Amino acid sequence: MARKKHYSAAEEAQVDMTPMLDIVFIMLIFFIVTTSFVKESGIEVNRPKAQQASKKPSANIFIAINEAGIVYMEKREVDIQRVRANVERMLAEAPEAQVMIQADQQAKHGIVVKVMDQVKAAGIDKISVSAEND
């Protein structure tokens, strides 16, 4: 006598979730690797107003100069002579990096020029200076 086996609905409808989890983890890794992380300068600067200011692509390296002439990179104070070394280190991490200088409108022109000189010495020729639209 042959007996038929009766299966419950729960036993018949099992789906293997392993391939779906593998795909989700691969997508997560892909998005983490392709995301560019922006490192802000770390301080709020009162930027000067400019009538001809234009939107530029976002930079990867931000350098802020406050009204007292103190230079900030990655939310920490940096000596002007150390700007070049810091930019070179950041450039090694991201070779296509761009520099944005956010100088306070009360900052001395000479300090901004010294910072720009240090950035150029590090190997970056295109430097953007941040300003607000009028």
UniProtKB/TrEMBL annotation:
Superkingdom: Bacteria
Chief subcellular location: membrane
InterPro entries linked: ExbD
Spans through the membrane: 20-38
Membrane topology type: Single-pass membrane protein; Single-pass type II membrane protein
GO cellular component term of the entry, any: plasma membrane
UniProt-listed GO biological process terms: protein transport
Single GO MF descriptor: transmembrane transporter activity
Keywords per UniProt: Cell membrane, Membrane, Protein transport, Transmembrane, Transmembrane helix, Transport
Subcellular location: Cell membrane
UniProt similarity note: Belongs to the ExbD/TolR family.
Protein name: Outer membrane transport energization protein ExbD
